[in-house]
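Handover notes (outgoing to incoming on-call)

Open items:
1. PRELI/MSF1 domain-containing protein: sequence verified, structure written out, both below. Nothing else pending on this one.
2. Nothing else urgent.
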Amino acid sequence: VHPENEDWTCFEQSASMDIKSFFGFESTAEKIAMKQYATSIKKGKEIIEFHLKQLEEEGITHVPRWAPPPAPTTYHGLPVSSARAIPACSSRAHPGSTDVLPGSPD
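PRELI/MSF1 domain-containing protein structure tokens:
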């Protein structure tokens, strides 16, 4: 969020390069890196503008500010999780079964 106007979004991008010794070609290597960086910035801007146009075409002119999801509630001190255990099923779990599982030593 922009510090002066909360309806604006700030986007910052930075890069750094450290060339110790490149046999006298430090300046050339720096120019090549800056050219690549400038190309990346331009491409990133094009992508953002593409998605903004798509939203506009769909009639979306306002997107509410993102807020982090609420912290999960706890149950008896343990976090609540939607993950469930996958039941194990193998030939060893069912005595008398003759099924051979792929990758098993049998």
